[in-house]
Structures are given as structure tokens and as C-alpha cells.
């Protein structure tokens, strides 16, 4: 067999494995996969009083409305050292809508933030099972240059 034929055969075998073996299918292709809960760190804005205003964009694409939604966030400095931990209320999150939530951090300069960690979800729709599901559903992104948003 020629090398291109072997490559083509391997490609078909890999595709067949993805289609036949449910454990290997990507999450988006699984019928039982929960819809994503998108959380985006959109902007950091320095305030005159020395605070940092954080703008978050959230989207609950499908499923059910979520209320309450509280996030446990940990901010790291540019040096990688924990700078602050805070709980923020970002709910309610209606279904099929994008919402913007804004909160100020007194005494925290925006240029000192190097990373934001979604440490935990403290509440998500009121049930423990919902809280854990929200952690799994969370898809994070950051539009702030040099500041990662991770879980």
C-alpha cells in the first residue's frame, strides 16, 4: 500500500472510532452534553478612586434560567501571587440572553491583575447539583490583554 493510502485509511479509522465509541466523541457532539455557560472577562477599567471596575459578559444559551448565580473568584497579581479573593453575584442569568455584569474592586489597581481564576461556583440555580453542573458547563474567555480567565 502506498503512503497516501495508509494515511487515508488511518483517517477513516479515526473518524469511525469517534462516531462509534461514545466515550471518544467530543462533548459538543454528545446528545446528553449540557449547553455551555459562557463567562467572559470583557474589560478592566481603572476608576478615579483607585478601584478597578470589572466588566463580565455572560451567556446562558440553553436549558433553564439560573438564579442565583454566585462566583468565587481569585485574582492573581502579575507576579503570580494571590492578590485577592472575592464572591460576586452575577445572576440571574435568563435563558438565551447575553447579560453584562459590572462590579468594582476598591483598593485594587487594574494594572496589577495578571489572572482571574474561577475558583468555584457558590450558587447556581439554588441546588448543589446545579452548582456542580454550572462548573462543568462554564466556558471561560478573556478579552483583556495579558489577563487570563481560567478555571
Describe the structure.
The chain has 2 helices and 8 strands, in the order H-E-E-E-E-E-E-H-E-E. It is an alpha/beta fold and about 150 residues long.
What's the short version?
With 151 residues, the chain is an alpha/beta fold.
Q: What characteristics describe this protein?
A:
single chain, four-stranded mixed β-sheet, 151 residues, elongated, disordered N terminus, 2 helices, alpha/beta, Immunoglobulin-like
Topology:
Blueprint: H1 3-20, E1 37-46, E2 52-60, E3 69-77, E4 82-89, E5 97-105, E6 113-124, H2 128-137, E7 138-142, E8 148-150
Parallel strand pairs: 1-7, 6-8
Antiparallel strand pairs: 1-2, 2-5, 3-4, 3-6
Category from helices, strands and their pairing: alpha/beta
Q: Low-confidence stretches at least 5 residues in length (pLDDT < 50)?
A: 3-30
Strand content: 35-45%
Per DSSP, the total helix count is 2
Helix content: 10-25%
Supply the number of structural domains: 2
The description of the largest β-sheet is: 4 strands, mixed
Strand order of the largest sheet: 5-2-1-7
Instruction: Summarize the helix and strand pattern as letters.
Output: HEEEEEEHEE
Mean pLDDT: 84
Please tell me the CATH architecture of the largest domain by its name: Sandwich
Instruction: Label the overall shape.
Output: elongated
The counted number of beta strands is: 8
Amino acid at each position: 500500500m502506498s503512503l497516501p493510502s495508509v494515511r487515508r485509511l488511518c483517517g477513516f479509522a479515526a473518524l469511525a472510532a469517534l462516531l462509534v465509541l461514545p466515550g471518544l466523541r467530543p462533548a459538543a457532539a454528545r446528545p446528553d452534553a449540557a449547553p455551555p455557560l459562557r463567562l467572559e472577562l470583557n474589560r478592566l477599567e481603572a476608576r478615579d478612586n483607585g478601584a478597578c471596575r470589572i466588566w463580565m459578559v455572560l451567556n446562558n444559551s440553553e436549558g433553564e434560567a439560573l438564579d442565583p448565580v454566585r462566583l468565587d473568584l481569585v485574582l492573581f497579581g502579575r507576579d503570580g501571587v494571590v492578590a485577592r479573593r472575592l464572591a460576586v453575584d452575577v445572576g440571574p442569568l435568563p435563558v438565551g440572553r447575553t447579560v453584562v455584569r459590572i462590579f468594582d474592586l476598591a483598593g485594587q489597581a487594574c494594572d496589577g491583575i495578571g489572572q482571574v481564576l474561577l475558583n468555584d461556583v457558590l450558587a447556581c440555580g439554588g441546588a448543589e447539583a446545579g452548582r456542580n453542573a454550572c462548573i462543568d458547563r462554564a466556558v471561560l474567555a478573556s478579552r483583556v490583554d495579558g489577563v487570563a480567565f481560567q478555571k
